[in-house]
Amino acid sequence: MLIAEDAGRESAKAPEPGAFDSALVVVHGMGSAYTSQILLEWAEPLLERMDWIARDRIIGGRDEHGVTIVDSELTGDVPIVTATVAFPTRGTGRIEDGAVVDAETTRRRIAIVEARWSESFVPMSRAQVFRWAVPFMWRALTRMLGLFRQTLVMLPWLTLVEHQRPPHDRLLIGRTLTAIVDIVRVAVLTVVFAAVWLGVVLLGVVLTPILPLLSPLLLIPWFKDLAQGVLDALVGSIGDVAAWKERPVRASAMRLVVRDALARARELVGDDGEVHLFAHSQGAAVSTFALFEELDPAAFNVRRLTTVGAAVVLLGRENWRGRSDRYAPVANWIGASPAHPVAWANHWAVWDPFSAGPIADTRRAARERWRAAYFPRSGDTALGPEEHAVHNTSQPFLDHSEYYRNVVQVVDPTARHLLGPALAARPAEVEYLENRLAVIDKKSLGTNLLAALVTAAILPGLPAASAAFAWLVETVALAVGAVAGVFTGAPASDALASVAWLVDEGRLTDWGWLIAAALVAALLIWLNQLLNGVTQRSLVWQRCPMEARRWLVLTALPRVGYVALAAMTVWCAIAAWTTPPLPAAALWAWGLGIGLVAAFVIAEPRFAPSPVVVPARRVAGGTSATADLQPPMTIGRALASPAYRNELAARRRLLAPATAWSRFWARVLHGWRS
Predict the structure, then answer these.
(1) Mind listing the domains of the chain with CATH numbers?
(2) 190-241 residue pLDDT tens
(3) How far is it, in rounded angstroms, from Cα 351 to Cα 372?
């Protein structure tokens, strides 16, 4: 990434009005945020991706293209980052060996402005927040369980039904085997949802009487010393949500910050530039309310709204006593500035409990648009913004805060929108493959995590493994004792007494089992994250990505290893812990069943449906937005398409490995020849 030589001089100047082509206003989510936090969280990945896109040689990128950071003002009242992006102009230049050469250059001036509202109001007291939290908690839990039910139960049912409908040429295996796999998926995930539902409901039942009592309990000195830090952090996280819902004056102060940031962005782009509004979580609720109910988007040159993990439906509008709190964000969006409509793209992670799916004015419309994210139909008529179902981590509760790490499904589309129509578009088949492989990769991350937890919980309790761990603990203790004995003169065997609470008669104690399980889990999870980082880089940041079939095979190997290890651990536990011991036939039957489940778990990320973009729909009557549905894209069709094959061939011709190691991998993976 280039940094201008005169950046130091430029940063001392205030940006001139009308000096930018586009301005992005970023709005943070619930919880306190320090100055420039949300700005850095999004400016860095967006500018990094823009630089990568601009230098792509397949569209004519050259060394002089890329991002030049002009200013990075991270303190003060309005933190701002400004940059110039130079990239090849779409439709210029000529094609040589499938790549563009001698293209003209477009320079786009971009400003990124922060809207931080977390300090714009006096927070509510702990007692007020905790009293409010009980009904809100049940609303949030109900929506979360609704999302999990759709993901774990309804989606497998829809998949089973859709796979039995013609045409069947998109199935990976025969119709009968596909039906068996789908039925197993329905059965297994329904049981999983039942367990999740029970756990969540029990958690809610336990917290319901506890939350109102937390503030009075702080009057007890020992409890205050123990819990005040945790409770203050909890209030800091959800207190602004309570203020938004229960205190209209404070809610207005939040919206005022967004309005001022939009006014600043409008000043930066002048009459001809475009303002993009980008909001996360509660910030999405604040932004959509301010933009579509209180402001005229055209007056601020707002052309696009992007929401991620949006709590728009969950939070709605503020409550006034005696006033209806019914909120219709989609109707407000459609009615706002009809002469200059705002393009609205909503990104929601499939495991995000706060966004809990698409944005709609009714539950029926939300269900229809959720189903259209997987299986669009010609009769779809529900109104709503452009919906992107994304996979951040495939782990509940972590998905909500990881949108900025999702390069393929969130960062890249946002960066391309900011660069504008002068940037070359990508073939649909290439985009589909990139999205589909990213989904499979994130599903593998979640699958490996679950397998790691199963392995870690059981392995230290198996007789042979317990003895091995005990030997390792005693060996380390003796080694430490021997070193200490050099200075103290004590025999090394004295060190064994210090680990007696971990080892007893050559086996791990309960505490030893627990600690060993934690260490094994930490190791397996760290390794899983490390491998996922490698596969993500190979998918997102390599100029010449691996051929998709080969990528699918190689990236499946860690998943096979994790799931196979978990299956073997479970089988060994059944053999070791069942009393009386199982007959050999029963034990092998258990092994066969566990093996079939393991095979299903390994194959599930590849067989499961991948979400598609649901087009925005603003008009109730007339032709459906999905009336002229094209045949569903599949990995096989995309791989066979001329667009994908030609681009892959062109990227391979552009390979120029500089080191012996890179030349080796270029030969192995891409057939490169010097």
Answers:
(1) 2-6+19-121+247-425 (3.40.50.1820), 126-236 (no CATH), 446-607 (no CATH), 641-670 (no CATH)
(2) 988 899 899 889 988 888 887 777 667 666 766 666 666 666 666 667 777 8
(3) 17
